[in-house]
Amino acid sequence: MIAVLASGNGSNFEAIVRAGITELILVCDNQDAFVIQRAKHLGIRTIVLNYHGFSSRQAYNQSLLKILSEWNITLIVLAGYMRIIDKSVLTKYPKILNIHPSLLPSFKGNKAIAEAFAFGVKVTGVTIHFIDEYIDEGKIVFQKAITIEPNDTLSSLEAKIHRVEHEYYPKIIKEVMEELEHESISECK
Length: 189
Ligand code: GRF
Known about the structure:
The protein is α/β, with parallel strands linked by helices. About 40% of the residues lie in helices and about 20% in strands.
């Protein structure tokens, strides 16, 4: 079972579900996020852990860990999740996937597309990686370069990047799930 953690719009979450990955739950830290509407529409079980309703970051993470364990989560997938993953979660789940809209290690942070566009780079892209304790770092699993054409605008570039994200994130998630299943079968032998 996969847990998709998302905080906002949820277009990647929707692409994942529409690609046929339905053995999943959505965990959302923001009760107003549009991703919750998408999950409802798609019939996906959603758990809202409203971050601001917790007394501390620690309390939030304890609840998150409890949910992950109750749902027997084997893979965590971040899809526009705006919180730093706590060490307590990383220790328990060392393989957590994230998608980032640039060719890491360039343009880390949450304004990656706009910054790459403003910088005038000719090539940007999408990175899918396992996270570590630092922001937008960790082992890269997949990258796809996207050319910024002279007639591109920020919004046409955003659209290109999201199209690539939606095409490849589900594929990589499927591959990683297969690898994890393989690993757990070998461990049982
Ligand atoms: C995506 O661009 C993803 O790369 C980044 O956050 C954005 C989330 O978009 N981490 P959405 O919520 O999936 O539409």
